[in-house]
Specification:
The chain has helices at about 20-45, 95-100; strands at about 1-10, 50, 60-65, 65-70, 80-90, 110-115. It is α+β, with helices and mostly antiparallel strands and about 120 residues long.
Length: about 120
Amino acid sequence: MRYALLVYSDQSSWDGIGEEEAARLRAEAMPQWITLFEEMGKADPDVVGYELESASEAKVVRVRDGERIVTDGPFADTKEVVGGIFLTTLPDLDEAIRIASLVPAAAYGSLEIRPLADHGDAG
């Protein structure tokens, strides 16, 4: 089964910190991420993951009454926003849950596991 693992977290803790502090925090967390990538690679050698830029860089597009409306950033009722995504093929939901629990961001954010829709050869 193909899954998307969406990584949610409150990105406000990164607001206003300098590049040096951000680099230190990333380096501190890197061993956990390396362990995750090793485990994910065992479960699915073709797994791909992407970190997204800050939600403050996002644009939201809507079309209403034929008019395109573009606004800054996601506007949600929660502080947690999608910060990354993994696309993976795993044998079942139990394995997806196991892998999601290894993502370091699960300790301070949350992971949404979403099966990818299967529309046959439609893409």
